[in-house]
Specification:
Elements (H helix, E strand, L loop, with lengths): L1 E3 L2 E8 L21 H13 L5 E3 L15 H9 L7 H11 L3 E6 L5 H12 L1
Parallel strand pairs: 2-4
Antiparallel strand pairs: 1-2, 2-3
The structure holds adenosine-5'-triphosphate.
The site of adenosine-5'-triphosphate (ATP) has 15 residues, from α1 and α4.
Function: RNA helicase.
EC number: 3.6.4.13
Enzyme class: hydrolase
């Protein structure tokens, strides 16, 4: 973990294999460039493999949401969305972020970054 004059950063760089990229255009409804199924398909692929190449300045890994010490309402919502296990970057980013550290995550689209940051916000409510 990098610490400098009160600044703490947990940096996670998740470069999963390049085969994850799915052409969106073929899946999009006519007239729309957004296809939610694209994200869900890609997330299922990501959850099926372990991160091979990543650099994490924070070395704790929580491979289940149960192990993260999240508040009950948030846990209920996570499971209500059928999130069974955290993605690679979520395993390394949610806990330090919820513990008040500054977290920078760099990863491909659809790997769970937004969910990480929303978890911190919802954990605080
Ligand atoms: N642990 C999980 N299990 C199953 N689905 C998940 C999980 N985490 C996130 N998702 C779903 O995967 C999709 C992508 O997640 P998210 O938006 O957090 O990724 P992202 O890295 O922020 O993407 P982008 O860079 O495009 O904004 C969303 O539909 C989200 O609901």
């Amino acid at each position: 973990m990098a610490q400098n004059a009160g600044y703490t950063a947990a940096i996670v760089n998740d470069n999963e294999d390049g085969g994850i990229l799915v052409a969106m255009e073929g899946n999009s409804a006519e007239g729309s460039q957004f296809d939610a199924n694209h994200y869900d398909t890609k997330m299922n692929e990501l959850l099926a493999i372990d991160g091979q190449e990543f650099f994490a300045a924070y070395d704790e890994v929580h491979d289940s949401f149960d192990a993260m010490g999240l508040q009950e309402n948030l846990m209920r919502d996570i499971y209500a969305y059928d999130f069974e296990r955290p993605s690679t970057i979520q395993q390394r980013g949610i806990v330090p972020f919820c513990n008040g550290l500054d977290v920078i995550q760099q990863a491909q689209s659809g790997t769970g970054k937004t969910t990480t940051f929303c978890s911190r916000i919802l954990q605080q409510l």
